[in-house]
Design a protein that fits this description.
By secondary structure, the protein is of the alpha/beta class. It is built from 14 helices and eleven strands. The chain has helices spanning 2-8, 103-109, 132-145, 161-170, 206-209, 213-227, 229-237, 256-264, 273-282, 314-319, 326-333, 336-350, 384-393, 413-425, and strands at 40-43, 55-62, 68-75, 83-88, 111-116, 151-157, 186-193, 286-293, 296-302, 370-376, 397-402. Strands 1-2-3-5-4-6-7-10-11 form a nine-stranded mixed beta sheet, with helices on both faces. A two-stranded antiparallel sheet has the order 8-9. Residues 85-412 form the AB hydrolase-1 domain. Residues 1-54 are annotated as: Disordered. Residues 16-29 have a biased composition (Pro residues).
């Protein structure tokens, strides 16, 4: 259930699955560069219909350990940007995740966004040795090879914030890092959006979590993922029972606003073919044919304005709201590489860490950078009292609370705009100041 909550929360469209465990290089892109240290690039021109505005390009880089990391760029071109921001997606998501900051705001501020598939997601190779340190190192190498400059910003979303916490312990003091071949890089600022809480943090008070049902779910899921992965995979892939039915529009897991987002966002009902087709009918969409998805036939559900673009590449099919039914998802989870990548991600996030975030000292003692937490007051995946405790324990973190927000803050354009302005310009919008009793 907990894995489902974290994963379903960020699926406006089905992210491409993790590639199989393989060291073979990916198919070549449109690049003549022969150096593996440089990113291969496949740039796409902006579309006149406005839906591709801000999509600069999509490509991949080769990391020091030989893995490939896929990324995409949005916003203004890097060479004219004032701010470079890396966004770290959550569990079960990808570089195609939603971050609905208005394009005019990104143009006005001069924001260049880089979104990437974390290890084992989308088109990025799995990392059998995934850890907090390796996640931060991937971000370091990405920033270095894309030449984002000496300072860049990081925005983490949901479970994608355990790499962000790790960045806070590594990137501010890059000169002390053992990776000698990386340029000198510093964090210019960090925003953690609805960050998941690891109930194993040593300094997290027991009386704060003793009645939290999520703690029991997290502990059960962690033990199952670690010691009985076969049972978990069977439950997710068996066809006799709908293992996801408890999540479908369950108010215990989603706030009212979250449910509105899920209701109005095509593709979220990935675990139920029936509800998926129902949603398509409600939105007056059409099933226009079949598409090929890594060798599997799937239905493309599109509205008229997306029809022309949903023709060949998976990238455009995803922009065109590709839908994969429950059986396809089950088939993908049966692939060992896909399931193992998800399992390692969950274990890294909720297992034992090599540092206690609640004991961190301010990594920016001269206020040269800032760290933010953005939390929905009505978030039922990560409760606000835990985030308030974190912000009290770490007063150097700037805490923002969205009064009617749930876990899906990145689907709110006003909130995304506020996240960027607070991180990049230092604004403190009164609307999102917590109303403490």
């Amino acid at each position: 259930m907990l894995l489902g909550c974290l994963g379903i929360a960020y699926k406006t469209t089905e992210p491409s699955p993790a590639p199989p465990e393989s060291t073979e290089p990916p198919p070549p892109h449109k690049s003549s560069s022969s150096s593996s240290s440089k990113p291969s690039s496949s740039l796409s021109s902006s579309s006149s219909d406005g839906d591709d505005v801000g999509v600069v390009g999509e490509s991949r880089i080769k990391l020091r350990d030989g893995r490939f990391l896929a990324y995409t760029e949005r916003g203004v071109p890097k060479n004219i940007s004032k701010f470079r921001v890396i966004i770290v997606h959550g569990f079960g998501s990808s570089k195609e995740m939603s971050f609905v900051a208005p394009q005019e705001i990104m143009d006005e501020l001069g924001v260049h966004l880089v979104l990437f598939d974390r290890a084992g997601y989308g088109e990025s190779d799995p990392n059998p040795k995934r850890s907090l340190e390796s996640e931060a190192t991937d971000i370091q190498e990405l920033a270095d090879k894309l030449e984002l400059g000496s300072k860049f910003y990081v925005i983490g979303v949901s479970l994608g914030n355990y790499p962000t916490w790790s960045c806070l312990t590594q990137l501010p003091h890059r000169q002390e890092n053992s990776l000698q071949n990386l340029s000198f890089l510093l964090l210019a600022g960090v925003a953690m959006v609805v960050p998941t809480i690891n109930y194993n943090w040593p300094s997290l008070p027991g009386d704060l979590t003793k009645d939290d049902f999520r703690k029991g779910l997290a502990q059960w899921a962690l033990r199952a993922a670690r010691y009985t992965p076969g049972l978990v995979r069977w439950w997710l892939t068996q066809k006799n029972f709908r293992s996801s039915s408890v999540l479908d529009k369950n108010p215990r897991f989603f706030s009212t606003k979250d449910l509105e987002v899920l209701k109005n966002t095509p593709g979220y009902q990935l675990l139920s073919k029936v509800t998926l087709l129902s949603a398509c009918r409600k939105r007056k969409m059409q099933i226009v044919g079949k598409g090929n998805f890594f060798g599997e036939q799937i239905s493309k559900v599109v509205s008229g304005r997306f029809l022309e673009r949903c023709t060949s590449t998976y990238k455009y099919m995803m922009h065109g709201m590709v839908v994969i039914d429950f059986l396809t998802l089950q088939n993908k989870l049966q692939q060992q590489g896909v399931f193992d990548s998800l399992r390692r991600d969950f274990i890294a996030a909720f297992g034992k860490w090599d540092f206690d975030p609640l004991e961190l000292v301010n990594p920016f003692p001269k206020n040269e950078s800032s760290v933010h937490i953005w939390q929905g007051y009505e978030d039922k995946v990560v409760p606000f009292p835990l985030q308030r405790y974190v912000s009290r324990k770490l007063p150097w973190i700037r805490y923002h609370e969205v009064p009617d927000g749930g876990h899906l803050l990145v689907y709110d354009s006003d909130v995304c705009e506020a996240i960027l302005k607070s991180l990049l310009l230092g604004e403190d919008p009164p609307l999102y100041r917590p109303k403490l009793s």
